[in-house]
Amino acid sequence: MTQSVVVQVGQCGNQIGCCFWDLALREHAAVNQKGIYDEAISSFFRNVDTRVVGDGGSISKGKICSLKARAVLIDMEEGVVNEILQGPLRDVFDTKQLITDISGSGNNWAVGHKVFGSLYQDQILEKLRKSAEHCDCLQCFFIIHSMGGGTGSGLGTFLLKVLEDEFPEVYRFVTSIYPSGEDDVITSPYNSMLAMKELNEHADCVLPIDNQSLFDIISKIDLMVNSGKLGTTVKPNSLVTSSSGTLKKRHKKPFDAMNNIVANLLLNLTSSARFEGSLNMDLNEISMNLVPFPQLHYLVSSLTPLYTLTDVNIPPRRLDQMFSDAFSKDHQLLQADPKHSLYLACALMVRGNVQISDLRRNIERLKPSLQFVSWNQEGWKTSLCSVPPVGHSHSLLALANNTCVKPTFMELKERFMRLYKKKAHLHHYLQVEGVEKSCFTEAVSSLSALIQEYDQLDTTKNMPNLELRKYISRFSAVSLTYTRCNPQHLPFK
Known about the structure:
Keywords: Cytoplasm, Cytoskeleton, GTP-binding, Microtubule, Nucleotide-binding
Domain Tubulin/FtsZ 2-layer sandwich: 279-414
Family: Belongs to the tubulin family.
Shape: globular
CATH superfamily of the largest domain: Tubulin/FtsZ, GTPase domain
Subunit structure: Found in a complex with TEDC1, TEDC2, TUBE1 and TUBD1.
Radius of gyration: 22 Å
CATH class of the largest domain: Alpha Beta
Oligomer: single chain
Mean pLDDT: 87
Number of domains: 2
Domain Tubulin/FtsZ GTPase: 49-277
């Protein structure tokens, strides 16, 4: 059994991380009722004898003594991490695996990346090495961060290069939360653009998620609850209710419920690595099968059901409807419509009481409505995990390498250019040592090149076979040149 380490960076990253660990504990508690430390729990937790001083207290088997998350918590403000350490999960985190500062990054990528990156590089490396030493077979680092703030975007992407240099054989999966157009951080387009260049160069797979999609999903759940549609009810102390038991006002963004969706995405993504099933999918298989070209490693995710049973009592969807939902626009965690765009590859990660025949039948049913690149018409990767999420009979996570991600990048570039043309707030970045205007122009060039790659793929939709073969040859040559210039971006490891 392999292990993974979660690195949660910045306010957003730590809040999502906290929700993830809470749900992970609930899930394993529901499955492992005898309290035995097994391989499933070891994938994300260490078993520690707290009576032993130092690092010698790890227990590889037997009864669970004290579980410690395989996590590194980083934030340049103390607030969120301190809140976690004073909350119900305080004993789950090793206090030696935390890095905090007081001043914060001031919503400035340059401060997070250049200032705090240099200042805390040795400490970060030490914590990462310590986490790796506690693993028998480290397979993946999961980085959770936001793109709009200073610490998440700056230090979060600085961390990627550190991981690449120190652990080149370990996969780097990044969950990146993109700001909405109404984001209250005015410099978020700068931060997101500069962070994108680092994601392009140093990540193996990126799961882009935007706040607006999450907010829209929660608003729909609120609407269903308020209307009483289909017998929908909210459970007491739900993530979509306030502490007083009433529904959160729609004008207040329910970040807890939004974080819950992202946490469930990560739980489903790692389910095959943690539990047995008739058709398991390892994390390295996701990168191997879904990323045909190294620079096109952005995977659009959709999840059904979108809530946990601890939130809302909604009658379960029929199995076939669950598959249809996963490809609908309303269930995407990004403002995207994959059915009307081009698929490079797609993974379906199913949990619960589902048969392989059900999986194959639904793929055949949906195939005619989905357009795949001609050279990968059978570009499906599937997994079946026998353990469903808590409170559900089955669930489905779909990961699509699809050109529908392009509008998100185009919108980001447009928002960036509106600020950059006026040179607004630029001096806050240029006054940081090591930051020059070339950092911005290179970031724009990097994103423009990525958008162009998706443009070229879209042009192949109705291309005759001869022209298509010429295009594939040219595209492969470009990717090979890119890989030679950037050896860390080998498509397969």
